[in-house]
Amino acid sequence: MTMPPVAIEDAALTRLLSRARVLxxxxxxxxxxxxxxxxxxxCQAVExxxxxxxxxxxxxxxxxxxxxxxxxxxxxxxxxxxxxxRRRGGFAETIMITAYADLETAIEALRAGASxxxxxxxxxxxxxxAVRRALQMAQLRRENLLLRHELASxxxxxxxxxxxxxxxxxxxxxxxxxxxxxxxxxxxxxxxASGTGKEVAARHLHGISDRADRPFVPINCAAIPPDxxxxxxxxxxxxxxxxxxxxREGFLxxxxxxxxxxxxVAELSPAAQSALLRVVEDGRIRPxxxxxxxxxxLRFVLASSRPLxxxxxxxxxxxxxxxRINVLQIDMxxxxxxxxxxxxxxxxxxxxIAQRQSLASxxxxxxxxxxxxxxxxxxxxxxxxxxxERALIFGRFPLETLAPxxxxxxxxxxxxxxxxxxxxxxxDLTGGNRSEAARRLGISRKTIDRKCAGWGL
Length: 457
What we know:
- The chain is an alpha/beta fold and 457 residues long.
- It has helices at residues 11-18, 29-39, 52-61, 78-88, 103-112, 124-153, 169-181, 198-208, 229-234, 251-254, 270-282, 308-313, 319-325, 341-357, 366-374, 380-394, 415-429, 434-441, 445-454, and strands at 21-25, 45-49, 66-70, 93-98, 116-119, 188-191, 216-220, 235-236, 248-249, 259-263, 284-285, 294-295, 299-304, 328-331.
- The radius of gyration is 29 Å and the shape is elongated.
């Protein structure tokens, strides 16, 4: 069998094929050789099997994006084998090839789960186009699933940032740490109070990693009912769940090659924690009702607004899972410890929200800047964004809603935070008179000028 030259000019096709793992199942050695030579130059990996038993062994060892399956083979027919794989939990796209085709066979192939049907004899370009269509359909289906997930969670639009904003020393240290771990697959644990930007940090990491062109899947573990979380994460085969006749790929397989961000991981049920431990350790999952594991290539970023050590001590979080995910840890600083980042973020939100809501923008004067710097922001970045949105809606900054800091007497603050608070308080009491504020504080006017310039006032 001669193979005509193949020319692939479509960059998107080349990129799709270069990531694909393909399994060829055909009892004819010549056809297997032809398909191997056709696909190998373009695909990440191509494996072959001469029988369905060999194909079973290949699928048990690894995951494939495409299965090219001959229908007429000794023993079990390709159609029957495919139907069995669907019952066992196979989610690979399948292209059926056969020299004997009629309408009834084509319909049976589609019912069994085949995504395309190619009639022998065929040319190399016909096969490559069929593989491309199958990969594109799988990609579109996954993108649709993930988009509906993000729409349901409200995690879309200009408010979703992919980069950490700010020039403070604390956020610079976070960026440096993320850059250091971007090239490894070790799980990353991000801790910090609600609203400090844990998901933004995870998106930042994904964006600077070699997985940036693959999916980023954020999952709020607290938002999924405990009895549904395993099905949502790992998927399920047809009939595994009452009232749901069709199978579905889970969020983890849909993120293949990318990054999964599990927020509020402390909310996972014991059963889900056990299943998560296995996939983090072995890179394998088993969809509900399936008889076969799926191998995954994922980077896990996990987050919790509650410290996990007390959860482990109380028996609510598995100790072995904690030790497995706590190899690399980043603690997101609260907004009050991020120096003048509050001004940078406020200006960003002013632009973003005004454009999205078609509202007139506002200019921050020195009084507003001082009030933003003085406020403690217990709700962190989320509170700041809400404040800016209210300001744009009403056309003024509601500074009266910013309560004065409430701190316990024994709390220890960073020295620069204490200095900033005292100087801003003195300026408030003197009506912005820097000379009088300096006199009362016992420092020079130049010191106040220098400090205020550093704070953007």
